[in-house]
UniProtKB/TrEMBL annotation:
Similarity field: Belongs to the glycosyl hydrolase 65 family.
Residue ranges occupied by any Glycoside hydrolase family 65 N-terminal domain in the UniProt entry: 19-257
Chain positions recorded as substrate binding sites: W354, D355, K610, Q611
One function term, GO molecular function aspect: carbohydrate binding
Organism domain of life: Bacteria
Domain Glycoside hydrolase family 65 C-terminal residues, every copy: 707-766
Annotated ranges, domain Glycoside hydrolase family 65 central catalytic: 319-698
InterPro entries from the UniProt entry: 6-hairpin_glycosidase_sf, 6hp_glycosidase-like_sf, Gal_mutarotase_sf_dom, GH65_N, Glyco_hydro_65_C, Glyco_hydro_65_M, Glyco_hydro_65_N, Malt_Pase/Glycosyl_Hdrlase
UniProt name for this protein: Family 65 glycosyl hydrolase
Length: 776
C-alpha cells in the first residue's frame, strides 16, 4: 500500500513516498509518518474530511500541561485547523461512499509538502477531481498552509465547504484547555484562544480562507458559526463541469511560550498574531510555500548525504530520517527538547528520554553542533528537576528523570501501563523510579559533545556542572556490599526493560563509573588550569565534599567482568534465568508478541531481552572491551534480543559492522529503516520513533562509515555494505567542516580549515591539510 518509487517533477527520485489506496482502518500509519512540522509545532497528516479512527493532532513544542493530579504532564492536543466538512450536491463527501480512482497521498520530503489527489465518483455518477496540498512552514514557523482544488469532470456540482478552528479535541479524553474567547474579524479572520488548565499557556490560533474559480478570486458571503470550543466559516457555490474551485486556508499558531512574547501582556500577543494571520492570508499558499521551499532547500544543502546504492530505498530512508529529525527538533528554543515520538503523535506524551542523548544527539553534534548544544542546555535547565528527584529519593546531586517534559517539572513518567495478561490489571511502569542510567547518559552526551566540538564556553556555563552533579548522584547512590567488599547498584532497570528490579546491571554500573571518572578527570584539570571555575561551583555543588566521595568510591564500584565464556552478565541473575525457544518471537511481525502469552513478571524470569543492553555498553564505551569479548557477547545476547524497542536494531547493526559482518549490519539497518517507513501499516499509529530515526543516521555515519569519537580523537573505520558503491556526507569536527567521500577502495576527505587535521583511519593515525585521499 505504500509506494516507495514515486517520482517528483524534474525526475526527482527517492524524495517522496505515497499511499496508493485509502483504507479507513489503516489511518494511523500515514498520519504519523507523513506528519508535517518545523520543531515549533507538529501536525499529524490527517485527511481533511473526517473519518472514524482518525487522530487529529497539533502539538506545539514545550506547551506541556497536567490534566489532573492523577496524570502526568503531557503535550496538549491544540485546536485543529485541518478539517474540511464538505458536501457535494447536499450529501457529505467521504471516500467511504462512491468510487475512488487515481488515489494517492504523497509526502514530498524535498519540499516538505503533503499532497493528496483522487477522482471521486458519487452515487449519481458525477465525477470530481480533488487535490489537496499542505505544509507547515519552515520559513515562518507559525504558519500552516492548505490548498484544495475541486474540479467536476463530467457534470457541474453544488459544493459546500466549512472549515475553521476546532478545539473540541482532547488527548485521548483528557481536555487540557479552558474554553477561551472566539471571534471572527471582517467575516474572514477567525480567532480562537485557548489556555491550558494547569500550566496556563495561552494559545492564539487564527485561520482565514481565500476562494477562487479558475484563478479568479471569488467573494462568497460565508455562513459564520461560533460554538463551544469552535469557530468556523462555510461557503456554498455551484462549480460548473471542467472548472476548478480553489480553496486556500492559511492558519497561524502562537503561544505564550513563544520567546517573542515572554513577559508580554496577552493583548500584545493577540495583536501581533492577528497581524501575522492577515499577512499570511494576503500572501497566500503559493507565495508562502515558495519561502518554505527555500528554507527546506537550505536544509538539504546542509545535511546533504549521498548514498549510491543498488537499493533505491536506502536513499529514501535516509532522507526520510533527515526530514523527521528536522521537523521534530525545536532548534529555536533551549527550553524544549525532542519527544520520543517527535511531534507526530500522542505516544509517550511528548516526553524526552535517553533517546535524545544517545540516538539523536550524534546527528546534531556532527551536523549542527549549535542545535546539539541547545538540546544539552535543555538538560542543564533540567538540573532543577533532577536535583529535586535526587532529594526526594534520599540521594545527593542530580538524578535525571527517566522522562522529562518542561525542564523544571522533574520526573513525569506515568505509573501505569499496558494490561498484564495474567492478572488483567494494568502493569506498573517502574522506569520513573528505577531506570536510572538516564543520569549517566546525559553526562556521556555532554562529554561526547565537548570532545567533538571543543566548545569550552558550553562546558564553563553548563557542562561541568552537569558532569559534577550527576557524579555526585552516583556516589550517593552506590550501595556498599559488606560480603563482597565493593559498591553495588541494586534494584534498577537497565536499557533492557524486560528485566526489572535487577542488581548490578552492567550498563548502569559501567556508565555510573564512567560518569564519576569524567567528574574526577575534569575536576583535576580545572584545579590546575582554571581553579576559579571550581570556586564558582563550590558553593552550590559542595564540590570538595563531592570530590572526596567520588575519589573514595570509584575504585570499589563493581564492574561485571566477562566470565569463563567471555560473557559479561547483563545483571546479577540474567545468566541464571530460564531459556526458552524464542524463534516465533524473533520472527514476529508485530513487536511485543511475547506479551500475548506472558506477563511482564514472567518475562522478568526468562533470558529474553527487549533491546540492546550490553551491546549499547559496547557501543558507548567501546575502548573498555576487547573485540573477542564483544563478539562472544553479541553471539550470546543477539538471539535473546527481540528488538521490541525500536531503539535496538540500529545498535545491533553498528555492532555487527564492528565485528566485520557488513552483510548482517546491512540487514539490521534495513530492518531499522522499516520501523516507520516500512510496509507494516500499524507500526507508527501513536507516532514515529524518533530514536530509531536518529539510529538510521547513526547506522550510516557511525556504522558503515565507522565514524567515532574515541578518547577525544576522530576515527573512521569504513565498511560499506556490498549494495553501496559510495557514501558522501558532511560533518563538523572541532568547528571544522569536513566532507567525507567513501568507496569500497578509498577515502577522500576535504577540510574547510587551513590548519592540519589529525584523525585515525582504520587504526592508522594520519595528519592532513585541506585534502586527504587514501586507499582503504
Ligand atoms: C524503550 C526505551 C525508550 C522508550 C522511548 C521504550 O520502549 O525501552 O529505551 O527510551 O521506549 O522511546
Amino acid at each position: 500500500m505504500l509506494n516507495y518509487n514515486k517520482t517528483l517533477p524534474n525526475q526527482l527520485t527517492n524524495w517522496a513516498f505515497s499511499e496508493t489506496a485509502f483504507k479507513p482502518l489503516l489511518l494511523g500509519k500515514c498520519e504519523s509518518i507523513m506528519s508535517l512540522g518545523n520543531g515549533y509545532m507538529g501536525l499529524r497528516s490527517v485527511t481533511e474530511e473526517p473519518y472514524i479512527g482518525e487522530t487529529r493532532n497539533l502539538f506545539v513544542n514545550g506547551t506541556f500541561n497536567k490534566f489532573d493530579e492523577n496524570e502526568v504532564t503531557e503535550l496538549p492536543n491544540a485546536a485543529d485547523v485541518t478539517r474540511f466538512d464538505m458536501l457535494v450536491d447536499g450529501r457529505r463527501f467521504s471516500l467511504e461512499t462512491g468510487k475512488v480512482e487515481e488515489y494517492s497521498r504523497t509526502l514530498d520530503l524535498r519540499h516538505a509538502e503533503l499532497i493528496r489527489s483522487f477522482v471521486w465518483e458519487n452515487e449519481a455518477g458525477k465525477r470530481v477531481r480533488f487535490s489537496f496540498r499542505r505544509f507547515v512552514s519552515l520559513d515562518n514557523t507559525h504558519v500552516i498552509g492548505m490548498k484544495m482544488e475541486v474540479t467536476p469532470l463530467n457534470e457541474g456540482i453544488q459544493f459546500s465547504v466549512g472549515s475553521g478552528i476546532n478545539a473540541q479535541l482532547t488527548n485521548t479524553g483528557s481536555q487540557h484547555f479552558h474554553e477561551g474567547e472566539k471571534r471572527i474579524f471582517d467575516k474572514k479572520y477567525m480567532q480562537l484562544e485557548q489556555t491550558t488548565t494547569e500550566s496556563k499557556v495561552h494559545f492564539i490560533i487564527h485561520a482565514s480562507h481565500r476562494l477562487s474559480l479558475n484563478g479568479e478570486s471569488l467573494e462568497i458571503a460565508p455562513k459564520m458559526d461560533i460554538h463551544r470550543r469552535k469557530v468556523a466559516l462555510s461557503y456554498t457555490l455551484d462549480i460548473p463541469a471542467g472548472e476548478t474551485f480553489t480553496f486556500e486556508k492559511m492558519s497561524t499558531v502562537h503561544t505564550s511560550r513563544d520567546l517573542a512574547f515572554e513577559g508580554q501582556e496577552l493583548s500584545v500577543m493577540k495583536e501581533a498574531a492577528l497581524a501575522q494571520a492577515k499577512e499570511a492570508d494576503r500572501q497566500g499558499y503559493d507565495a508562502l510555500f515558495e519561502l518554505h521551499k527555500q528554507a527546506w532547500a537550505n536544509v538539504w544543502d546542509r545535511y546533504h548525504i549521498e548514498i549510491d546504492s543498488e537499493q533505491e530505498f536506502d536513499k529514501l530512508a535516509l532522507r526520510f530520517a533527515t526530514y523527521h529529525l528536522v521537523v521534530m527538533t525545536p532548534a529555536h528554543d533551549r527550553r524544549m527538547a525532542i519527544g520520543a515520538k517527535g511531534l507526530s503523535g500522542e505516544g509517550y506524551k511528548g516526553h524526552s528520554f535517553w533517546d535524545t542523548e544517545i540516538f539523536i544527539l550524534p546527528f546534531y553534534i556532527y551536523s549542527r553542533p549549535e542545535i546539539a548544544r541547545s538540546l544539552l542546555e535543555y538538560r542543564y535547565l533540567g538540573l532543577e528537576g533532577a536535583r529535586r528527584k535526587a532529594q526526594e529519593n534520599g540521594f545527593k546531586g542530580a538524578m535525571y528523570p527517566w522522562e522529562q517534559a518542561w525542564p523544571t517539572d522533574g520526573e513525569v513518567t506515568p505509573v501505569w501501563g499496558e494490561v498484564d495478561v495474567v492478572t488483567g490489571l494494568q502493569t506498573k511502569i517502574w522506569s520513573g523510579f528505577i531506570e536510572q542510567h538516564i543520569t549517566s547518559d546525559v553526562a556521556y552526551a555532554v562529554w561526547h559533545y565537548y570532545k567533538a566540538t571543543g566548545d569550552q564556553d558550553f562546558m564553563e556555563r553548563y557542562g561541568y556542572e552537569i558532569l559534577f552533579d550527576t557524579a555526585t548522584f552516583w556516589a550517593s547512590r552506590l550501595e556498599w556490599d559488606n560480603a563482597k567488599g565493593r559498591y553495588h547498584i541494586n534494584e534498577v532497570i537497565g536499557p533492557d526493560e524486560y528485566k526489572e528490579h535487577v542488581d548490578n546491571n552492567a550498563f548502569t554500573n559501567y556508565m555510573a563509573h564512567f560518569n564519576m571518572e569524567l567528574a574526577i578527570q575534569y575536576y583535576n584539570e580545572l584545579q590546575s588550569e582554571r581553579p576559579e571555575i571550581l570556586e564558582r561551583l563550590e558553593e552550590s555543588l559542595k564540590l570538595q565534599e563531592s570530590y572526596t566521595a567520588w575519589t573514595s568510591k570509584i575504585n570499589q564500584i563493581y564492574l561485571p567482568q566477562p566470565n569463563e565464556d567471555n560473557i559479561v552478565p547483563q545483571d546479577d541473575t540474567y545468566l541464571t534465568l530460564e531459556q526458552i525457544d524464542l524463534t516465533k518471537y524473533k520472527n514476529q511481525e508485530k513487536v511485543g508478541s511475547l506479551f500475548r502469552e506472558y506477563s511482564l513478571d514472567q518475562v522478568n524470569k526468562l533470558q529474553v531481552s527487549k533491546q540492546a543492553d550490553i551491546m549499547m555498553l559496547f557501543f558507548l564505551l567501546e575502548n573498555k572491551f576487547t573485540p573477542e569479548v564483544k563478539k562472544a557477547n553479541y553471539d550470546y545476547y543477539e538471539p535473546k534480543t527481540l528488538h521490541d524497542s525500536s531503539l535496538s536494531l540500529s545498535t545491533h547493526s553498528i555492532l555487527a559492522g564492528d565485528f566485520g559482518d557488513s552483510d548482517l549490519a546491512y540487514q539490521l539497518f534495513r530492518k531499522a529503516t522499516e520501523i516507520d517507513l516500512g510496509p507494516n501499516m500499524h507500526s507508527s499509529d501513536a507516532g514515529i520513533h524518533s530514536a530509531s530515526i536518529g539510529g538510521i543516521w547513526e547506522c550510516v555515519v557511525m556504522g558503515f562509515a565507522g565514524l567515532r569519537m574515541l578518547d577525544g580523537k576522530l576515527h573512521l573505520n569504513p565498511s560499506l555494505p556490498q549494495a553501496w558503491k559510495q557514501l558522501k556526507f558532511p560533518i563538523y569536527w572541532q568547528g571544522v567542516h569536513l566532507n567525507v567521500h567513501l568507496t569500497h577502495s578509498d577515502v577522500l576527505i576535504t577540510s574547510s580549515s587551513d590548519e592540519p587535521l589529525a584523525l585515525t583511519i582504520k587504526g592508522n593515525d594520519v595528519l592532513f591539510h585541506k585534502e586527504l585521499h587514501l586507499p582503504l
